[in-house]
Design goal:
Elements lengths: L16 H17 L3 H17 L2 H9 L5 H14 L4 H20 L3 H11 L9 H32 L9 H21 L5
Helix pairs in contact: 1-5, 2-5, 4-5, 6-7, 7-8
Length: about 200
């Protein structure tokens, strides 16, 4: 399984995980409160400066992390162009900025620090939901997402090597089975270490 934390050490790595998550929540709320494209671009400016201040390599990695968003940007842009809806630009700016901010926090925060924050926040829910179980579920989700994407890419590549047809929906079943197989193996590993899964 992969981690999304950047190996490039930056000033943001030294900030507490709790502070970064609080700032991310506040920033996201602000983005949804703003309506005009100019106000949204002004709100995005500190984030752009913060990413640029982390260095060229880190900024390049941050931009690369936005690639999976491209199909959604194209679909939203086309929809608003076809329907002649003037609210398309604010939606696109908000979406890209929010994802870039979340990526920035994820790339500069160790997963163990995030889990510790989630466990602290989940303590009041202990009677109905064990904090450790919630933290583990979130950690597995974060770590499994890039693994699942990589597995889907491998299956699509294998399909293209054997068939001239586009893979499309045809790789859905093998990707799902591969994900279930990985989940089963992780559950066995957790049980072997004394956990419950």
């Amino acid at each position: 399984m992969l981690t999304l934390t950047s190996p490039i050490e930056t000033y943001a790595h030294r900030l507490p995980a709790g502070l970064k998550l609080v700032l991310l929540c506040g920033f996201t709320v602000l983005l949804f409160a703003l309506k005009s494209p100019l106000a949204l671009l002004c709100a995005a400016l500190p984030l752009i400066v913060g990413i640029a201040a982390a260095g060229r390599s880190f900024a390049t990695s941050s931009v690369r992390m936005l690639r999976p968003l491209l199909p959604f940007v194209v679909i939203v842009a086309l929809w608003h162009l076809i329907t002649k809806d003037p609210f398309g630009l604010p939606i696109l700016i908000r979406m890209i900025t929010a994802v870039a901010a979340a990526n920035f926090v994820t790339m500069t925060t160790r997963l163990s620090d995030m889990i510790a924050v989630i466990e602290r926040l989940a303590r009041p829910l202990a009677p109905i939901l064990p904090p450790k179980a919630l933290a583990l579920a979130m950690a597995l989700t974060v770590r499994f997402t890039p693994t699942l994407l990589a597995r889907a890419a491998e299956i699509a590549e294998a399909w293209r090597a054997r068939s001239p047809k586009r893979p499309g929906w045809r790789i859905l079943l093998p990707t799902t089975l591969a994900a279930l197989d990985d989940a089963d193996r992780v559950a066995e590993a957790i049980r072997a270490r004394g956990g419950s899964a």
